[in-house]
Amino acid sequence: MYKIALSFLFTAVCAVSLFSQEHVIDQIGRKFVPSQIKVKVGDILRFTNSDPFAHNAYTDDVLNEFDTGMQNKGQSAVVPIKAKGTFNVNCMIHPEMILKVTID
What we know:
Blueprint: H1 2-19, E1 22-28, E2 31-33, E3 36-39, E4 44-49, E5 57-59, E6 66-67, E7 76-80, E8 85-91, E9 98-103
Parallel strand pairs: 1-4, 3-9
Antiparallel strand pairs: 1-2, 4-7, 5-6, 5-8, 8-9
């Protein structure tokens, strides 16, 4: 029974990873690039800091809440998309930075 459950779990994880897509969001020039993105549930957002100073990407969206913490130059953080909807991502350090995320 344990082997069957483990096999099922492995198959489910592989299936999700086959259909999910990683989207890279660059943090450069005190902007999220791109500034808008359309993704699907199960996709992953990778926030990469290309600026010479720190950034922090976060959202308060109830269904997709996350906070990448402080990201120094060259660091990345990965965030999974959990639910449909629309939300904005902000930078706690640079409030003018806004990324609009739409999830199908």
